[in-house]
Amino acid sequence: GLSGRFIITALPTIYHCKDGEFRRYQGARTKADFINFISEKEWKSIEPVSSWFGPSSFLMSSTSALFQLSMWIRHCHGYLTEHVGIPVWGSYAVFALATLFSGLILGLIMVFLADCICPSKRHRAPQYPHSRKLAPESAQLLKKLDEEQEADEEDISDDETESQEVPDKDSSPHTVRQRPVHPAAAVDKS
């Protein structure tokens, strides 16, 4: 984990740390050079590591966690092959299945969160299919159809109130109600 925080890829890697600033030493590796680096304050001539790559930054903490995870996987592999007696290919199969299973779980969680944050269209309120820019004739026709539908609903509610007030003795449950024709709708289309 520590090597992940400082991006240590070769040994020895030497850092000078003072007042929360980290400087990577890249000079000679003799005792006299180390003493001069500190006593003569040569470290001031080296630019500190940027905040992105500082050991306490989020990026380096994540890299450290990745290094620790890889070490944990290595220990688990050693335990499975040496103590449990699983062959090497069996240990790889266990890790492959664990990776697939964890990927499925994480994928389901991501889909659930995405559906909660941005619900799909079927959960949204239905929009009128012709709500975009319509030609004036189409807009008038749609308005006329809406008015006729409202008039039909009013007629039906009026008929229901009349049938509740005065029951018709001649009506049967199988009679068909005829809709009155409006004069505007009866215009000859030829």
From TrEMBL:
Coiled-coil regions, chain positions: none
Composition bias, Acidic residues: 147-165
Superkingdom of the organism of origin: Eukaryota
Keywords, ordered alphabetically: Disulfide bond, Electron transport, Endoplasmic reticulum, Membrane, Redox-active center, Signal, Transmembrane, Transmembrane helix, Transport
Entry's Gene Ontology molecular function annotations: disulfide oxidoreductase activity
Gene3D superfamilies assigned to the protein according to its UniProt record, in alphabetical order: Glutaredoxin
Membrane topology: Single-pass membrane protein
Transmembrane segments: 93-114
Region entry Disordered, spans: 139-190
Assigned GO CC terms: endoplasmic reticulum membrane
Main location: endoplasmic reticulum
Subcellular localization(s) per the UniProt record: Endoplasmic reticulum membrane
SUPFAM superfamilies: Thioredoxin-like (SSF52833)
Full protein name: Thioredoxin-related transmembrane protein 1
